[in-house]
Amino acid sequence: MTETPENQNTDQLRNIALAPAQIEVGDRLRRAKSSRVEALAADMQVQGQLQPILVVESEKPGKFLLIDGGQRLAALLVCKAAFVDAVVLPSTHGPELRKYAEIMANVNRQELTKLERAEYLCELRDVWQKMNPTAKHGGDRRSAQVRAVKELRSEAENKSPILGLSAQVAEEVGLSRSAFFRAIEIANGLFPKTKDRIRDTWIADHQAGLQALAKVAADVQERACDALLSDPPQATSVADALLLAEGRALPRNDDKHYHRVTATWSRLSTKSRRAFIDEHKREILEHARAQGWSL
C-alpha cells in the first residue's frame, strides 16, 4: 500500500511515493552536475532507484520541498520515472532544521579513497562482464568482428567500458576506460599485505604513489611500507621510499632542486630561457671566466 501524507503521523519520518511534479527543488547549495546525472540515470536503467530522496512538506498543498537527493531526482526525470521514492521529514522541521539536514547530508558523505575506488572499479568491471557476457565473449564470428570494431572505436574515444557512457561524461565521473586501466593496475598490482598496511594512511589516497607501489615486487612493497610507516618515517614520499627499498640513497635537497630545474628548462620557451639567463647573467659570466670559456 502506498503511503500518503493524509494517513501518517506528521511528527515522524515516513516513506512515500511521489509524482515528480509534486517535488519542488528550490535554491540548493549543491547543484546537480550533468555528467553525474547522466551516469546515475544509466545506472537506474539497470537497477532502479535504490536510495530515496529526502523531502519536507511544502506550504503548498500536495507539494514537497527537496532537502537531499537533487542528482537522484534529476536522473529519475531523465529516466521518465512515474514515481519517486522519498523520505518525508516531520512537518515540525522549520527552515533552519531543513537547511541543517541538507548540509549534513552532504558533509557526512565520505568519499572513497583512491585505493578503495580502484578496488571497487576492478570488481565492477568483472561484475559487469558477468552481467553482460556479450561485452566480453560475444556470439558468432560476425558479431565478434562487429564487436572488435566497436572496441577499437571505444578505445580511441576512451569511452566507458560500462553503461555506454560517452567519453566526456565517463571521464568526468571517473568511469573512463583509462580510469579502469589505472584501477586494475592498482588493485591487482598491490599485494594484500600492502593494502592492509596502507588502507588507513595518507598513501591510500595518493594516486601516483599507489601506481608506483603497484609496479614493484611484494618484497619491495613491504620495505617501502616499512620506510613510510616507521616512527619517525624514513621517507616522506613513495618515490623516496622505493629508493630506500631498492637499496639506493635518498637524493639531497640540492640534488632535488637541480633535477627539478633541469627538467623544467626543457619545457621553457626561448623567451623564458633568455629571461632566466638575463636574470642570472653575472653568475653565468663569472662561471664562464672561471672555466676559461671563450665568449
Automatic annotation (TrEMBL):
<dbReference type="GO" id="GO:0005694">
    <property type="term" value="C:chromosome"/>
</dbReference>
<protein>
    <submittedName>
        <fullName>Chromosome partitioning protein, ParB family</fullName>
    </submittedName>
</protein>
<feature type="domain" description="ParB-like N-terminal">
    <location>
        <begin position="16"/>
        <end position="107"/>
    </location>
</feature>
<dbReference type="InterPro" id="IPR003115">
    <property type="entry name" value="ParB_N"/>
</dbReference>
<dbReference type="GO" id="GO:0007059">
    <property type="term" value="P:chromosome segregation"/>
</dbReference>
<dbReference type="InterPro" id="IPR036086">
    <property type="entry name" value="ParB/Sulfiredoxin_sf"/>
</dbReference>
<dbReference type="Pfam" id="PF02195">
    <property type="entry name" value="ParB_N"/>
</dbReference>
<dbReference type="InterPro" id="IPR050336">
    <property type="entry name" value="Chromosome_partition/occlusion"/>
</dbReference>
